[in-house]
Amino acid sequence: MTLADDAVAAIGAEALALPASAAEPAIRRHLAAADPAMAALIGRVGRCGLRVDRAREPYEALIRAIAHQQLHGRAAEAILGRMLALHAGEGFLPPAVLLALPDAPLRGAGLSGAKLAAMRGVAQATLDGIVPSRRLAARLDDAVLIERLTSLRGIGRWTVEMLLMFSLGRRDIMPVDDFGVREGWRRLKELDRQLAPKAMAQATAHLAPFRSAAAWYLWRAAEEKPGGFRAPAAL
């Protein structure tokens, strides 16, 4: 899997196009006008392939993200498949069901103790109203969601940023802790080393308010081969 594919897999592969086709050319023009190096990258890559799943609830997105932490996408999906097989009903494992299941079958599905504890924490926080529904999340700004969700065990800023980008469709997220994003910027700007996260945030501020699309292009920059660009995988 590519760097961008891994980020998408953390939230979910079933997706609808974002930005919308009508907005995507304007976003490309904005990024190109804001940064000559970005303009050249966009010229090589073409249209932005960032996609968002508009149906997935934050609870499910976070559970999937925990499963994907520090694992290859296929391994994480296999674990999720075994977890879902423990639920007799249709759809994703509801929070109450996840909390009611004993540890043994969930550990047998391949979850570590730490991941299981984190998932149970997300399930309980969903029932308690800390993890919002998709409808409520739409009324909360990025900073509020980041602060609220990173208070949960096993949920870091990067995980919430992936939720914001790939599940809630927020357009101005720059995940500065992401290795691929920082490596893409290093290559784009021909730097000797990656910028630290704080410096990265400052260096990419001029790409607002479309930094989510910029991050997608930076993942692509991190995957470029000398002498040409490898065809981007569908996100």
From TrEMBL:
Membrane-spanning ranges: none
Enzyme Commission numbers on file: 3.2.2.21
Gene3D superfamilies assigned: 1.10.1670.40, Hypothetical protein, domain 2
UniProt xrefs under Pfam families: HhH-GPD
Domain HhH-GPD positions: 67-223
Biological processes annotated in GO: base-excision repair, AP site formation; DNA alkylation repair
A GO CC term assigned to this protein in UniProt: protein-DNA complex
Protein name (Swiss-Prot/TrEMBL): DNA-3-methyladenine glycosylase II
Organism: Endobacter medicaginis
Reactions mediated catalytically: Hydrolysis of alkylated DNA, releasing 3-methyladenine, 3-methylguanine, 7-methylguanine and 7-methyladenine
Keywords, alphabetical: DNA damage, DNA repair, Glycosidase, Hydrolase
Entry similarity comment: Belongs to the alkylbase DNA glycosidase AlkA family.
Keyword Hydrolase found: yes
